[in-house]
Amino acid sequence: MKSIKYLTVIIIMIINCSAFGQITCTGTVFAEIVPVTVASEIRPLSFGQFSTVGNGGNVVVSPQGTRTSSGSVLLSESVAHQGLFSVFGTQSNTVQVILPSSPVYIYHQNGVNYMYLDTWTVDMPKNGNSKTNNEILVSVGSTLHIGPIETNPIGAYTCTYPIIFVYN
């Protein structure tokens, strides 16, 4: 008799638990397709023409286009300018720029000799915020390290560098 009572209690508990053990709820999903971020170089970073005497030195081009030298580097009257990029994305978002974190090597036309760039700097109008226009102009500068003439012979030097634009 006791076992029938226990069995009846267990069956009642199972029925009650299964009846009150589930709750159905609905959730909401949101998605938005936005234009692809597009970046293009408008003007390359240029350190212009210069000469080295002694042990070389540095040439700095700021994001505003100002060029200065230090050490044994003599600047000529040639044109130097900051790098300029155009970045398009969605309105009312912010652009973040990720510049090279390690030195970038710029090679002589002979493919052997090189100088290097570091200390990258950036300038963006409106702090990178695209409130009224989807385009943001980003200016880039850097420091070029030049060795003595034996290490860095006369001639043209070129390279490419990675720059990442993140649209938030």
Walk me through the structure:
- The protein has 168 residues and is mainly β.
- It has one domain (38-167).
- It is 11% helix and 42% strand.
- It has 1 helix and 10 strands; from the N terminus they run αββββββββββ.
- The chain has one helix at residues 2-20; strands at residues 38-43, 50-61, 67-75, 83-88, 95-98, 104-108, 114-123, 135-146, 157-158, 164-167.
- The strands form 2 sheets. Strands 1, 2, 3, 4, 6, 7, 8 and 9 form an 8-stranded antiparallel sheet that branches. Strands 5-10 form a two-stranded antiparallel sheet.
- A hairpin with a 5-residue loop joins strand 2 (50-61) and strand 3 (67-75).
- It is elongated.
- The N and C termini lie far apart (72 Å).
Look at the helices and sheets and give the structural class: mainly beta
The biggest beta sheet reads: 8 strands, antiparallel
* Ends distance: 72 Å
Number of helices: 1
- The helix/strand order is HEEEEEEEEEE
Number of domains: 1
Radius of gyration: 31 Å
Count of individual beta strands: 10
Round the mean pLDDT to the nearest integer and report it. 85
Query: Helicity, in percent?
Result: 10-25%
Query: What general outline do the C-alpha atoms trace?
Result: elongated
Strand content: 35-45%
Low-confidence segments: none
